[in-house]
Design a protein that fits this description.
Layout lengths: L4 H23 L20 E13 L1 E6 L2 E6 L3 E10 L5 E8 L6 E9 L2 E10 L2 E8 L5
Antiparallel strand pairs: 1-4, 1-6, 2-3, 2-5, 5-8, 6-7
Length: about 140
């Protein structure tokens, strides 16, 4: 063992304190930065007017289409088809939540079409028994 033990202890404590100060500065909260902006509101210019068309193999009891927390289509009567104009942000991929239910347990098909200016943008057929719950993603459309 070489050197003075007291001097080695002091140097070791200084080194640990210096490392602790570096870690504290790296992981500490900075007060000079504002909090990140977390708003997800879309401007009206980013929205596109589209027609959503629903066609079912049998009349449904209830069928709903949602975008985020907004109910786009709510059909509670016995229908096998419905179309409605809605506003969607098609410049980005868009997720739609589809819920449908039928009175019997047979296999049922539900075809979803999204039309912009009567031009098909997206089309998909979903299958379910008594109930159908699915999320479809409409890819982004460049204008």
């Amino acid at each position: 063992m070489r050197g003075q033990p007291l001097l080695r202890l002091i140097l070791t404590l200084l080194l640990v304190a210096l490392l602790g100060l570096c870690v504290w500065r790296l992981t500490g909260q900075r007060k000079d930065f504002p909090p990140p902006h977390t708003s997800t509101t879309k401007t009206p210019a980013a929205m596109t007017s589209v027609k959503i068309v629903l066609l079912a193999s049998h009349s449904w009891e209830k069928c709903q289409v949602r975008y985020l927390d907004r109910l786009l289509i709510d059909s509670g009567t016995a229908e096998s088809g419905k179309s409605q104009m809605v506003q969607l942000p098609l410049k980005n991929p868009t997720d739609l939540i589809i819920n449908a239910s039928w009175s019997n347990t047979d296999n049922h098909a539900l075809k979803i079409q999204v039309l912009e200016n009567d031009t098909p943008v997206f089309e998909k057929t979903l299958w379910g028994n008594q109930t159908l719950q699915d999320v479809i993603t409409i890819p982004s459309v460049s204008a």
